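Morning. Coffee machine broken again, so started the prediction first thing and wrote up yesterday's gels while waiting. Chain of 427 residues, entered below exactly as on the submission form.
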Amino acid sequence: MNICFDNIRIVSPLQSIDIRGYLWIEDGIIRHAGAEAPETTRATTHIQADDLTAAPGFFDMHVHLREPGQSYKETIESGTAAAANGGFTGVVCMPNTEPAVDSIQVVEFIHKRAAGLLTDVHVCATITKGRRGSDLAAIETLLNAGAVMFSDDGGCVESAEMMRRAFDYVSTFDALLTQHCEEHSMTKNFAMHEGTVSAELGLKGYPSVAEDIIVARDILLAEYCGNRRYHAAHLSSAGTIRLLRDAKVRGQRVTGEVAPHHFVLTHDAVRGYNTNAKMNPPLRTQADVDAMIQALADNVIDVIATDHAPHALHEKNVEFDAAPNGIVGLETAVGLTLTHLYHTKVLSIQSLVEKMSVNPRHILGLPQPMIENGSSANITILNLDKEWTVNTDRFLTKSKNSPFGATELKGVPVYAINNGKMIACTL
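Came back before lunch.
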């Protein structure tokens, strides 16, 4: 790799950089990043980049790679290929695999499978053994093995006492606990959000208060146990936003994320019994969508993450009640975010980069990519204004369960660069 992007916009909020200039990368190292043209070598390929923007590599802290155990849905190789195609140079894979990520052996298996790929793979391990909620996992051991956070994602830690024990246990090494926020006694056999559309369609509903109850409980427990670190995953309810906002005002160390489908779609997308609009938490009302957007603008929500959840065609092509929850998201997230947040002036490009690159790494305590001479190139390159239509046939994920097929978007990832590798995104 020996490439120079000429007249590219370079945006790096941590470095207070927003300039137009030159970005020269050779052998995976940034040789020059600045307003002045560099003296490149004869072998350098120059790309005229008037319409391109370079940012620190995007990072998705909530991805289901399905391996081990469900490789017919996705593998680490196919999932990271989809991530790079979507502009992500780093991801965190969630622990609801088979077996669950509750042992050093599974952590090491994932790290080994991910070695040498363009997209870095970090691991979220379980809070409880087997995600069963009855006994704490060996959290400190898993942390030392490289896990960056802990969750029983795919389900909630139902017991308040167990969650309290987890907060107390991590107090000596300040590990990050994250939660799938769902009060399961209120959501058993749910199919979608509880509201007017579920009533019309005759489907069992999931009331938004079932999310709020767990967020409230966990915020109280985190405070009671000494202001422990806590991250609320895939928020969907206006009620959770109020709780998160209040906790931050009080100085609690709480953070939250939202997936693009929860700030773009409402439960109306389920009409026609569209199983690609079935997910957990479910799509909610326009008031909830508006709350997500406002919380992003106010920095109450810290991170945009995809909750990429691939399922095979035969699993989704069934009756709505029987279909599994989840959609793929790695290859539409950047386009949806640029279309619905940047081009609507909800977020500046600097704020967008913070939520998709800087903040997730900061929350996880990971090194931040710098766009400066001598640094390893870990960069996402975007075309902020290119109009395109989502075609799931161009996805590199093994599964195609997206509600956004044929959606027209504005803004797209163009290149992903990391670990001495560069790919051209093919969306």
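The CA atoms of residues 58 and 357 lie 4 Å apart. Going to sketch it on the whiteboard this afternoon.
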